[in-house]
Amino acid sequence: MDTYHVRKLKHPLDVHVTVPGSKSMTNRALLMAALSDGRTRLEGILFSDDSRHFLGALKALGFEVSYDEKDCTAMVTGCGGSIPQKEGRIYVGSAGTAARFLTAMLALSDGTYEIQASAQMEKRPMKPVFGSLGAMGAEFTYLKEEGFLPVKVRGSAARVKYAEIDISKSTQFLSALLMTAPMLNNGLEIHITSEKTDGAYIRITRKMMEQFGCQVEYDGHDYHIKGNQVYQSGNYVVEPDVSAACYFYGMAAVTGGRAVVNHVHEDLMQGDMKFLEVLKKMGCKVIDTREGIEVTGPADGLNGVDVDMNDFSDQTMTLAAIAPFAKGETHIRNIAHIRLQESDRMAAILHNLTNLGIRCEEEDNGIVIYPGTCRACEIDTFEDHRMAMAFAIPGLLTEGIVIKDPMCCRKTFENYFEILDEITG
Question: In which element (H, E) is residue 73 found?
């Protein structure tokens, strides 16, 4: 499918939907299961381009892996922090989590490996994690541009106890070090060199490590992982993807309709839960029902908001897509780092809003979006799954919205547009 023509809604939105498992939690669970002390059954995991690349990489490294996509389950047998194959080549595609997490695991091993990636991933920043791991004794040979994938890495065999990392561009760098630290018999002290020292995804990492049996201490600036810890095998259930759920909540918000996403509840640990507070400020009603959280959009239109989205920036695209329908300006702040994600998301948002006929302005660290009337246009996705899914939302109210390269959504939610077909009839 080269393009997707969004159909304007003919009736008030009223949907119950089920979304896939969380991408970020799926790949974290796969890594910890691989480093565990035995066989782990993972339930509710996401099957997408990213997770398939992660599973393929684990198989290439010699781990015993089996899975059932229909049941959303996988079995991974860990070797107590060791990698079965001491030489090999893996391909991480466009998966940032796989790239950062597996690089750290290989760099702290006793083997030599080659890490290949897609052209998109080759442009994304890796230098901070390369620098930290290099200082810890790993040896990197850059196969193209210095500081970027692809690389060859010779592991440090866990010879050090101290690391420094800058997480201003991505918290995945820190999560990679935290999750692989149990490979080090003597533990690890991680000093954060950037102003930002914590974040929603880091808190997910720490919580999941605890659920797998390993403790992390955070003193408000630095992180401390004691030695002689091993991830415990067993059963683990991955949460549904709140990032995916928010697209449907955004649809309810702009249409004055109602959306319930099954199994999404207030106690989920994902940072994108904060987007529900934004929707409340915009005038939506949000309640946690037995089936899942229900969002109802206001009958008299949305309010503009001023919000710092640094801690849940994956929802920047969703807010940008619904902001034109608000009664006032929307200010999205503290999101400069999204320029370095799957696409330059700041530029992509401004480009697509302009195509829609919406006035918007870029600031040093954010975007201002003014209310307006959307017009028919083509949406450029820039190979970015979140751009494709979020900017389909205006099409529910505007005739003639066409999504180019819609199947880039395979990265996290490959049947998204099939569900949208059902919603629009």
Answer: strand 73-77
What's the confidence (pLDDT) of residue 158? 63
Q: Closest Cα to residue 244, out of 36, 12, 410?
A: 410
Tens digits of residue pLDDT in 43-100: 999 999 999 999 999 999 999 999 999 999 999 999 999 999 999 999 999 999 999 9
**Residues of the chain under the 50 pLDDT cut:** none
In the chain, where the domains are located: 3-20+241-424, 23-225
What's the start-to-end Cα distance of the chain, in Å? Answer: 19
Distant-in-sequence, close-in-space partners of 52: CB < 8 Å, separation ≥ 6: none
- Kindly report the CATH number that applies to the domain delimited by 23-225: 3.65.10.10
Beta bridge partners of 401: 377
| Catalytic member of 50, 241, 314, 384 | 314
The topology (CATH level 3) of 3-20+241-424 is UDP-n-acetylglucosamine1-carboxyvinyl-transferase; Chain (3.65.10)
Residue 314 annotated in active site: yes
Instruction: Give all strands of the β-sheet with 73-77 in edge-to-edge order.
Output: 64-68, 73-77, 39-43, 235-237
H or E segment at 56? helix 49-60
State residue 169's pLDDT score: 85
Closest Cα partner for 381 from 415, 418, 422, 342? 342
Cβ 308 vs Cβ 335: under 8 Å = no
